[in-house]
Amino acid sequence: MAVRMRDVARLAGVSEATVSLALSGSPRISEPTRARVAEIARRVGYRPHAGARALRTDSTGALGLVVSDVANPFFAELAGQIERIAAAEEYSLVLCNSDEDAARQDGYLSSLLAGSRVDGVILVPAEAMTPGIKAAASAGANLVLLDRPVTVRGRDAAATRLRDAPVVRGSAAGALADVAELLVGLGHRRVGVIPPPVSNPVGRERRDLLVEALRRHGLAGGDIAVEPGDFRQHSGERAVERLLRRRRPPTAVFAGDGLMAIGAMKALRRAGLRIPEDVSLVGFDDAPWFDLLDPPLTTVAQPITELAAAAVRAMLALLRGEPSLAAAPPCRLVQRGSHGAPPHRNDAKKGTTS
Amino acid sequence: MAVRMRDVARLAGVSEATVSLALSGSPRISEPTRARVAEIARRVGYRPHAGARALRTDSTGALGLVVSDVANPFFAELAGQIERIAAAEEYSLVLCNSDEDAARQDGYLSSLLAGSRVDGVILVPAEAMTPGIKAAASAGANLVLLDRPVTVRGRDAAATRLRDAPVVRGSAAGALADVAELLVGLGHRRVGVIPPPVSNPVGRERRDLLVEALRRHGLAGGDIAVEPGDFRQHSGERAVERLLRRRRPPTAVFAGDGLMAIGAMKALRRAGLRIPEDVSLVGFDDAPWFDLLDPPLTTVAQPITELAAAAVRAMLALLRGEPSLAAAPPCRLVQRGSHGAPPHRNDAKKGTTS
DNA sequence: CTGAAAGCGCTTACAG
DNA sequence: CTGAAAGCGCTTACAG
To answer: Mean per-residue pLDDT for A211-216?
Structure first.
């Protein structure tokens, strides 16, 4: 059906070997021959059979990207940028959604890597460690960890390799310290924190960074209410409901993910609370329409372009056998309209609706 | 590096042929042998080399998806659902962003199809017709057109095949008639329309369907101002600015795409206009956070889940050689808070800011 | 400067 | 019920 090398060779009156060499620009082929072969190949729309080439060269020209959910605006933007950069480097992108499910993630890892579908995988790990990640590492796969680290135990070969795997993620410490300073500075003394699942290193980290910054600003442990979510919008709603049922509900809420921030906003509104007059809300992740929300969302923006570029760069370094290139570009706090001073003290119990 | 069939054969004490047959469940292999081979393959994490299999069977187990921009929430959601459904059918997804650029789209088509990277492509065409689409069709590629049709001329083989290619897209006629009825019913007499590029059949269609519905409700041609955009947020802003500079600016604006609706909202606000008191705004495409915008956006929602399912279904039918399965599930108007009655007549020129 | 030949890892007629 | 052999489309040492 498709045009094959044999056809190009016949049309050019040379052997397949010459076509192959000519198209790869080998100096062994004379310029006139090279030009003629290239022109014919172009004219007939010849493209080498990707599978045949992969079989022969043990490299596919494809990269895998396993994220938890492309419908999440953060990952959608990230996937788009990674595709763009990879395409510029002549790599195609196989996209997989793990849906935060370790088993699905491991299935993808195995099909992509053990099946030699791709040369490497950029992975947003669904859990701190899974059998599939271990298996990929011990098979010597090219793995770049994106957005989240992985928890490595032991000193076997897989563990050692994994410890060396490049991790590319936003550095949230500075921005979360800014969040703490902003909220405490405005007078908030009771803060609700909705981190990603704490079974996940990224959940623990966002929680700990903010909680510690809040404490540095004088808040006591009892003033900080933690209700983890699961990266989904719905979990943000549920977490806010739980926060509002507390004896002394928070006057400010931090939601550690874009979708959870949306969910938190919905639940806050449903409870009849005004943002920021009754409660302040600070999110994590940004999107081009967050400034159009009601109110415009104050949030921690991740450096998506840098993350995408660094992830592809780290993968290319791996593929070339160069030393691994981790990266941690800083997140930054974007102040918009969803934060403000807390309501007066005697309004304290107002939030206990639902 | 990776485990190959040879290794499984050795461990099981049988030939490679037997392993192949056993794993494919051939009745020629005895049950004990099959079970033993399967168990060993599972234990060592064997996965067939995708390229070798593709070379031999002429089928890759992969599908291409070429969209114009995954960062657009509509396509992000669509891509996510398509990946999910394709994965359930054991197909992996190669994602490509054409960025509405015909040349990039054609490059992807050629690399995916002529390069035998995928068994078929689900394509959101960047233009009504391009050389790459024609080439793919005449090479007999499996092509499903998503969200947008293609303009076919001529009666050659490629044209005939293309005319038979399944088209899967939302049917907007009913919902756009509802938009016209809603706006005219509220008293609007001057409507601004920001369709997708009219070089694109989908742009012409959205424009024509709405304009005709508006006319059926008694609006004259001069009352309808058309300022096409290009699917990007920025173009929605520019289009609104042009609409507001008109002698008699519209009292209601329709933006024919999610990102353009966001842009329109931004420009309207920047011009100091209140929505919907000064201008009504109706969008196209929906997202889980559109109800949190200020004001909540009244919009035409596309049936994304149905579109994704229908696209994969159409592709599977093609791959099985079954008759092509087009689909056109209906869009529906979601009324929220961005529409209302027009301001009083003597306010008519208020909008001429900028 | 160019060609003939081997081999990557599978699947599938063909033997037995 | 199982194995030996051919061949998919490439690339790359090896000859000449």
So the answer is: 96
**Does nucleic acid strand D have an atom less than 7 angstroms from the CB of B35?**
no
Percent of chain A with pLDDT over 90: 84
For residue B56, the surrounding DSSP H or E stretch is helix B50-57
Position B39 pLDDT exceeds 70: yes
Provide the shortest C-alpha distance from residue B110 to chain A (in Å): 7
Domain coordinates in residue numbering, chain B: 5-55, 62-165, 173-302+334-349
Question: Is the full-model pTM beyond 0.90?
Answer: yes
* Residue closest to A248 by CA, chosen among A225, A226, A269: A225
pLDDT, residue A1, reads 62
Q: Give B49-58 pLDDT, tens digit per residue.
A: 999 999 999 9
pLDDT number for residue A349: 44
Q: What is the DSSP letter of A114?
A: I
Measured CA to CA in angstroms, residue A53 lies from A39, A60, A116, B51, B139 at distances of 21, 7, 12, 8, 21
Distance in Å from D13's C1' to A21's CA comes to 13
User: B5-55 has which fold?
Assistant: 434 Repressor (Amino-terminal Domain) (1.10.260)
Interface test with A, best of B3, B57, B95 (most A CBs within 10 A): B95
pLDDT value of residue B323: 86
Q: Find where tokens 């981190």 sit.
A: A195
Interatomic separation, CA of residue B37 and C1' of nucleotide C9, rounded (Å): 18
**Model confidence over A38-83: pLDDT tens digits?**
999 999 999 999 999 999 999 999 999 999 999 999 999 999 999 9
CB B144 within 8 A of CB B123: yes
Question: Hey, are the CB atoms on A96 and B92 less than 8 Å from each other?
Answer: yes
- Of the CATH numbers 3.40.50.2300, 3.90.180.10, 3.40.1160.10, 3.90.226.10, which one belongs to the domain with range A62-165? 3.40.50.2300
Q: Distance between terminal CA atoms of chain A?
A: 64
User: Does the pLDDT of residue A243 top 50, yes or no?
Assistant: yes
> Cβ neighbours of residue A208 under 8 Å, at least 6 residues apart?
none
Tell me the helix, strand and coil percentages in chain B, rounded to 5. Answer: 45, 15, 40
Mean pLDDT of chain A: 92
Locate B287 and state its tokens: 């997202």
